[in-house]
Amino acid sequence: MMTDYSHYADDELVQLMSKDDHNAFTEIYNRYWKRLYVLAYDRLRSRELAEDVVQDVLTGLWQRRNHTVIRSLPAYLATANRYAVFSQFSKMVPVTAVEALPEAIQAVADDTAEVHFLEQSMQEQLKQLPEKCRLVFDYSRNKGLSNREIATELKISEKAVEKHITKALQRLRLQFRNYFHSLFV
């Protein structure tokens, strides 16, 4: 008898996938492929590149299934998708070390302690931001909301959203510039 995975919650599918359940992965693939494609296409404006990004993200999810802790599947996939898009951009145009942050994190992804340190350091920096700035950044980067959606949710202008995101990114760039400079020198 074939199990219907469409009724499983994301966290249940992740748990099953971590136990090498290919059908659970297939359900995740079917559930998220189109969303990831739309996000990638919106940034890249290329069907082929967007398809490549989604394929890389979902292949990476399967390959890391046994050793990656996923608290929120949509947030994890949106973040992985964003990094893969940045990686595509970096292949198209030269980038500075700070703009290559996602690639740098991927480069050290095998060193769990270093990734953990980077995540903690970033969280500490974000905690020091004013509350609204921190909330805007969280909605943008962790929940994948657009500037318009954030503006509507927080009842502020899109320009204010942009300013908050810029402020948060400036703080992160300033904090991590020496660390990432050493990776690219």
Main β-sheet, in a few words? none
CATH topology of the largest domain: Arc Repressor Mutant, subunit A
Number of domains: 2
Q: Give the N-to-C terminal Cα separation.
A: 57 Å
Count of extended strands: 0
The average pLDDT score comes to 81
The name of the CATH architecture of the largest domain is Orthogonal Bundle
Overall outline:
globular
Computed structural class = mainly alpha
Radius of gyration from CA coordinates: 17 Å
Which residue ranges are poorly predicted, with pLDDT under 50 across at least 5 consecutive positions?
94-98, 181-185
GO molecular function, one term: DNA binding
Family: Belongs to the sigma-70 factor family. ECF subfamily.
Domain RNA polymerase sigma factor 70 region 4 type: 121-172
Keywords: Sigma factor, Transcription, Transcription regulation
Word description of this protein:
The protein is mostly helical and 185 residues long. It has two domains: 86 residues, RNA polymerase sigma factor, region 2, helix turn helix motif (Rna Polymerase Sigma Factor, Chain: A, Orthogonal Bundle); 91 residues, Arc Repressor Mutant, subunit A. The chain has nine helices and no strands. Helix 3 crosses helix 4 and helix 8 crosses helix 9. The C terminus is likely disordered.
